[in-house]
Amino acid sequence: MDANENPYGPSPRVREALARYDRYHVYPDPEQRLLREALTRYVEMPFEQILVGHGSDELIDLLMRLFLEPGDRVVSCPPTFGMYAFDTAINQGKLVHVPRRADFSLDVAGIEAAVMGGNGGRPAKLLFLCSPNNPDGSVVPASVLRRLLGLPLIVVLDEAYAEFAGRSYASWVREHPNLVVLRTFSKWAGLAGLRVGYGLFPHWMMPHLWKIKQPYNVNVAGTVAALASLEDIAYLRENVARIVAERERLYQALQSIPYLEPYPSRANFILCRVVGRDAQALKRSLEREGILVRYFDKPGLRDHIRISVGRPEETDRLLEALGARHGVRDRQQVTHDRARR
After folding, report:
1. CA distances from 176 to 145, 153, 204, 288 (A)
2. Which of 29, 135, 259, 313 has the most CB atoms in a 10 Å sphere around its CB?
3. Cα gap 289→21, rounded to integer Å
4. Can you list the pairs that 182-185 forms with residues at least 24 positions away whose Cβ atoms lie under 8 Å?
5. Max alpha carbon distance in the chain (Å)?
6. Closest CA to 20 of 201, 220, 212, 171
7. Cβ distance 230 to 38 under 8 Å?
8. Which CATH number fits the domain 12-232, given the four candidates 3.40.50.300, 3.90.380.10, 3.40.640.10, 3.40.50.80?
9. What value, to the nearest 5°, has the Cα angle with vertex 53 and ends 47 and 59?
10. Are 81 and 97 spatial neighbours (Cβ–Cβ below 8 Å)?
11. How would residue 327 be classed by pLDDT, with cut points 50, 70 and 90?
């Protein structure tokens, strides 16, 4: 429960398609035409504006290779996905942090100042936003995104968890020439191990991306699995609905635990602040019982753990380990005692 993986795995059609496919000895289509055609129906975006990558991580790196020269600035809003910082360093960019507020909302004025400041008056080149944000699960409001799209740089919106939020800004790419939306099959479709992501890009950007993309960047197994997933969307959406329902059940249960303060989430995980006890010791205690959660101890995330949503039986085991049932009884007893007074 520590890596935000889909506990239900891929569609059964993926296993069937991989077993049936008999051309693994042939190089993949460098343009991923079949997959891009299928994606046009899923995201309702033009074929010409879709680029497939070896996970969305590859596309993050590709954008930096396209836009950055040494010393160019990239704006990120921590705590957030770590690959933005990782790839900025690899591409010799300069990362500018605009920390999120205590409730993990974006500091819009701070972002605007960071974009326009420094480097001889030249604006930053790229702004990375994750919605829902990893690790807290908050989404970027439409009004905020619209305001930030008025800035003179490329806004990259990472929607790895969009299916769990029930909304996407993919269609906005049609209207905004400085917006890129990144998506993945890792979470909602359960293909994390096969590394298939895709991006929705403005028309003007696509020729430049094609020039620098590795020809055979997506392997045939990943392509076959993604195509099979898109042929079984109803099944996968049922699993997403199960995860969302289990997320809400887990959130309610975590609220009953006196030493945890869970944050509302629109993703497939829940971030919790640990209060009155050592968060790392809690992580290790759960690990001894065979339960893995993500522990954070860095600026903006001191004494926090993140719990990926699992199947109901996995939630039950986690709650038992956390002492949630005892916590619920304690809270009910406190409420009862107060009522008697």
Report:
1. 11, 11, 11, 50
2. 135
3. 40
4. 182/56, 182/59, 182/60, 182/156, 182/157, 182/158, 183/43, 183/56, 183/159, 184/55, 184/56, 184/160, 185/225, 185/226, 185/229
5. 77
6. 220
7. yes
8. 3.40.640.10
9. 100
10. no
11. very low
> How is 193-204 classified by DSSP, letter by letter?
GG--EEEE--GG
336 vs 225, which has greater pLDDT? 225
Residues counted in the chain: 341
Question: Where are the chain's structural domains?
Answer: 12-232, 234-340
Residue with tokens 């029930």: 166
- E strand spans, the chain: 50-53, 73-76, 94-97, 126-130, 154-158, 179-184, 197-200, 260-262, 269-274, 294-296, 304-308
Instruction: Specify the 3-state DSSP secondary structure of 151.
Output: coil
Give the tokens for residue 54: 């070896």
Give the model's confidence band at 131: pLDDT under 50 very low, under 70 low, under 90 confident, else very high: very high
| The pLDDT value given to residue 300 | 83
The predicted pLDDT at position 122 comes to: 84
Q: String of b and e for 171-202 (b: at least 16 CB within 10 Å)?
A: ebbeebebbbbbbbbbbbbbbbebbbbbbbbb
DSSP string of 78-91? SSS-THHHHHHHHT
Distances (CA, A) of 316 to 36, 112, 253: 40, 44, 10
Q: What is the pLDDT of residues 74-110, one digit of tens each?
A: 999 999 999 999 999 999 999 999 999 999 999 999 9
Name the β-bridge partners of 304.
273, 296
Helix (H) or strand (E) holding 222: helix 220-230
Q: How many CB atoms lie within 10 A of CB 226?
A: 27
Cβ neighbour number for residue 19 with a 10 Å cutoff: 9
d(CA 268, CA 284): 22
Lookup: tokens for 325: 């049932």
* Structure confidence at residue 340 (pLDDT): 38
Tokens of 14: 């993926």
Residue 261 in this model has a pLDDT that exceeds 60? yes
> What is residue 331's predicted lDDT score, i.e. its pLDDT?
44
